Amino acid sequence: MNNKYEVILDTMPETENHIEILFRQAGDGFIQVEYGHDQRVELLDSFRILAVDSKIKKMQIQGLIETVPSLRANLIHFDPTVISAAQLIDKIKEAEDSVKGMDDMVIDSRIITLPIAFEDSQTKKAVELYLKQVRPDAPNCADGYNLEYMAQCNGCTVEDIKHMLLSTDWYNSGCGFWPGGGFFWPMDPRCKMIVPKYNPPRIWTPEGAVGIGGACLFTYTTATGGGYQLFGRTIPTFQFSMKHPQFKDGPFLYRPSGDRIRFVETTEKEILDIYDHVHDKTDYVYDIQEGQLVVKDYLEFLAKPEVQAGAKEFEEKQKRGSAAAPKL
Q1: Phi, psi at residue 111, to the nearest 5°?
Q2: Cys-Cys crosslink for 164: which of 126, 191, 220, 307, Cβ 3.0 to 4.6 Å?
C-alpha cells in the first residue's frame, strides 16, 4: 500500500497564455492554484489571477466560500461536503481556459498617494533595539538604518534607493501577513530592488514603518515584529477603532488587490502631524484617486527600449552588489 501523500492534485500544462498551473491541496477545504513551480515576480501573473478569479466568482459555484488572490497564486476556500476538490478543479480549469491574452484586460486600480519620511526617529529606534536586544553584530544596520545595506545589495547609492522608491508606483497583489497589510511590487522594472530579510527577525517595528523583503514592499499597519529592511515611515493605513471617515466601512486602507501606492517625500514632523489628524482629530483627507490599470498600456511601457535597457543595467548592478554585500 502506498501511503505517500501527494500535495499536487492536478496540473494544467503550459500554453501560450500561461505557464504551468499547479493545483495544490492546502487543507481539507482549501486548494491553492499556483502559477509555476518556481517563485517569481511577474505582475502579469497577478493580472491573470484577478481575471480568472473574476470568472470563478461569476460561475456561482455551489460550495465555493471565498478566494484569496495573490501575486502568483489563488487560495480557494470551499466546503468539501458540497463539492469535491476534483469537481472544483474542473470548474477552475474552465475559468482558466476562458481567459486568453492580457491585451484587453482593464483592472480597477486606485492610486493612493502616501507621504513618507526617510530615516525617521521611530525607524531608527526599531533598528537600535534590534542591535541591543537581538543581534549586535548585524551587518545591515549601519548608522542606525537599513538604507546603506539596501544600497550595497543593489550595487547603488542610498540616494539611488530613495529615488527608486519615489519613482515607481507599487502594485498590491493581495493582502496578508498582518491585518490590513498589502504585498506591493514595483511597476517599473528599473526600480526592482531586491534585499534579503533580517536574520533573525526584529521583535518590534513601529506602526507605519515601510520596508522591503526580496522585491516586496510592505507598510506595517500596527506595531509588531518583522523582518523586512526598513527605510522610513508613512501615515496610518489601518485603524481598528474605525473612527476616521476613511475607515468607517472597515479598518483597512488597502483593497485586497489592484491598489497602487505612490510615495511622496516629506518630513517626520509632517508624518507625526498626520497621525494626530488621523487617530485623534480624525479630519485628515487621504489622497486616493479611483482609476483603472490598462494592461495593454502597461505592456507597451515594459516594451520600451529605454525601460528594457535600464532594467537590464540595474540587474547587472544588483548581481555585483549582492555578491559583495555582507550575508545575513
Answers
A1: -110, 115
A2: 191
In which element (H, E) is residue 212 found? strand 209-213
The structure's pTM equals: 0.91
Q: Which amino acid is at 206?
A: P
Q: Which amino acid is at 212?
A: I
Beta carbons of 226 and 202 less than 8 angstroms apart = yes
CB 46 within 8 A of CB 215: no
> CB atoms < 10 A from the CB of 166, how many?
14
H helix and E strand count, the chain: 8, 17
Distances (CA, A) of 177 to 40, 82, 244, 306: 19, 30, 24, 35
Chain CA centroid to CA 53, Å:
18
Q: 179-238: per-residue pLDDT in tens? A: 889 999 999 999 999 999 999 999 999 999 999 999 999 999 999 999 999 999 999 999
d(CA 92, CA 104): 21
Cis peptide before 13 (omega within 30 of 0): no
Distances (CA, A) of 303 to 150, 266, 300, 309, 310: 27, 33, 5, 10, 12
Please check the confidence at residue 242 and state whether its pLDDT lies above 70.
yes
